[in-house]
Write a structure and sequence with these properties.
This protein is an alpha/beta fold. The chain has ten helices and nine strands. It has a five-stranded parallel β-sheet, sandwiched between helices. The chain is globular, with a radius of gyration of 19 Å. It starts with a strand and ends with a helix.
């Protein structure tokens, strides 16, 4: 039986974990929802959903993907959320969307990773040693649970529904509205002297909020303040009008990569 792991990863942290799952669960096929030409969940007996927490919620691209899912042929799902400072309500949001569609979510995990949001890194909130030994042990248990669920479904049995929880603190903190997030973010601007028109920012933007007309043009109505273009610019030519951030999170560190070898 094939297991479809539908993922989104803007910095590479989530993809690193998904690659690890794929190596430890041979039945998994990983699908990047931002680049896949066809998203056929009917090809799989179980699906997994993986993404980073995004402003205490989930990325808009993952939210839209979940809204379009159908459980007519697939009934069982597991969830993976990576996060830096806080996971927010990411698990309950994904769980509610899937439950509404008729899926049984049988397992989930939230995994702390090094902080990737430039505004937090600038303040020294890095968490560079995450995940720790205890968190990696929980990941291994998660893998074993998914393996067991695969065997159950293959034998015609149903894995039990998991009670989903974000934890007390996360459940109490409200998700900031987009208007507040964008006000704090400001507008994207480009240093035309530093910019080489390489197109890295366009390639990084899954929301199609950037066009290239000699130099990048930013459509702030489409922008979601994900900082992908900022992080991926090799010349550090992109900034926002409301910050003087210079630090980037271009990709997972060597130390982090080694933990998932």
């Amino acid at each position: 039986m094939k297991v479809g792991l539908f993922c989104h990863s803007s910095t590479g942290n989530t993809k690193l974990v998904c690659d690890y799952l794929k190596r430890n669960i041979p039945e998994i096929e990983m699908i990047d929802i931002a680049t896949a030409s066809k998203l056929r969940i009917e090809d799989y007996g179980i699906i997994g959903i993986a993404c980073p927490a995004f402003y205490l919620s989930i990325p808009p691209i993952m939210s839209s993907f979940l809204d379009c899912l159908s459980s007519e042929s697939v009934k069982y799902a597991f969830l993976l959320v990576t996060y830096g400072m806080m996971q927010g309500k990411s698990i309950s949001i994904m769980g509610k969307k899937l439950t509404k569609k008729g899926f049984v979510v049988f397992e989930y995990i939230t995994l702390r990773m090094p902080e990737s949001l430039p505004t937090f890194i600038e303040k020294g909130w890095t968490d560079i040693e995450s995940p720790n030994t205890k968190e990696m042990t929980l990941l291994h248990r998660f893998i074993e649970t998914v393996r067991s669920a695969i065997h159950l479904v293959e034998s015609g049995k149903s894995p039990k529904k998991k009670r989903l929880s974000d934890g007390l603190l996360n459940s109490l903190i409200p998700i900031p509205p987009r208007s507040k997030t964008m006000k704090q973010f400001g507008n994207l601007v480009v240093d035309e002297q530093a910019c080489t028109s390489c197109g890295a920012c366009i390639e990084s933007c899954v929301y199609r909020a950037i066009a290239l007309d000699k130099k990048p043009y930013f459509d702030m109505d489409k922008c979601v303040a994900c900082y992908s273009c900022f992080n991926k610019c090799p010349q550090k030519a992109i900034s926002t009008t409301n910050s003087n951030i210079t630090v980037q999170y271009q990709k997972p560190s060597t130390n982090l990569v080694e933990k998932f070898l």
